[in-house]
Structure formats: structure tokens, C-alpha cells
Amino acid sequence: MSVHRTADLLSTHTRAQIRHALAAGRWQRPARGVVVTHNGALSVSDQEEIALAVTPGRAALAGASALARDGLALADPRSVQIVLPGGARRPELDGVEYHWSTELTDADVHPLRAPRRTRVARSACDAAAWAASDRSARLYVIAPVQQGLINAAGLYDALTRRGPCRRHGLILESIHDAAGGIASLPEADFDELRARTGLPRPDRQVVRKGPDGRYYLDAH
Fold it and tell me: Where do the structural domains in the chain lie, given as residue ranges?
């Protein structure tokens, strides 16, 4: 780990050593009270840890940023997403998207994972609420289920604890879709067309053999 609060770094270095490393250009200070112990470009990981270092202790990496840390292949946050405890002051740091919540207990924030971040189910609900479009929001709900990171029951529990939020109805609908076997946005698009035309609900993920002899999963 290369990002440290100055106060923590003082347990292993003197103030003079820290000042010398900064003056010599070996280390850098991207924000007040934070030191990065290298002089290269800041990685996404560095930027996330810097954003956490300038926040209150109960703050956590959240939304798409937390999903990416937990392995969601498609998570590509526009900026670092952080959730702050309700009433906390907004830190002055560019490139960070701050949100506030009163629900930051161990039920929603993992007590052991580093950097500190929300659990997958909460991250998915937050990412969907904060997404740039409804389509992206649905993707943030369906994809973690499809990739085996969480199940629909976990998503429903997290949404219930979270309470009212932007796109609550769409998120709930997407959880129901994921529970019903829809594993991608094209499948969701298909189901919307199916409902519009009055066709019955299909069995999902049925193994089919195509004319070329290849097998695939489909709606039947």
C-alpha cells in the first residue's frame, strides 16, 4: 500500500524524513494530510485510497467503484464513488463523487475487506441509483447475479435496508428479472418485447442445439 495518512506514516518515519522525501520528489502529497510513497502517476487504486484517506472513518468505497474491487467485470465508474456517513462534511477533492447515507453498518459495509467498501449487494443498488442511464442501472443489478457475485435475495435485502432512492422501482424490477433467470440486458430487452406482445413467460437458460451443431442457452 502506497497511500497513507500523514498521521499513520509518523509511526514509522519522522517528520523530517517525510518532509525530505516530499522535497526530493520521491513521494507526493495529493491532499492535505495524505502522502503517497511513490512519485509516479496515480493509479485508480491510489485515487480510491486517497479519496478514503481524506474522509471520516466510517466512509466507504461504494457503487461502481466497490463493484470493480469485488470483481464485477463491467464496472467502469466515471469517477471514484464514496459514501459518507450522514451529516459528514464533503472533502475538497476533485474526481470524486460523494454520496451520503445513514445505513453504513456491517450489514452493508464489509468489516474486513480493504480498502473499506460496501458489500456487493449494497454496491449494486447504489451503482444503479447513481447510474447515468436506466439501461446502465439495470446492468448494475443483473450483471452481479449473472457473474455469481450475489443472488437476488441479497439484492432485495440490501434495497430494503437502503430505503427510498432514485430508480427504486426500476431496481426492484431488475432484481425480479434476475431472480427469474434473466442474465443479461439483451435478455431483459427480449422480455420487454415478450410482455408487450402478450407472449407467455418462457423457461430460461434452456440448452438448445443449433443447425450448426453448436449448443447454447436460450428462452423456450
Answer: 1-42, 44-183
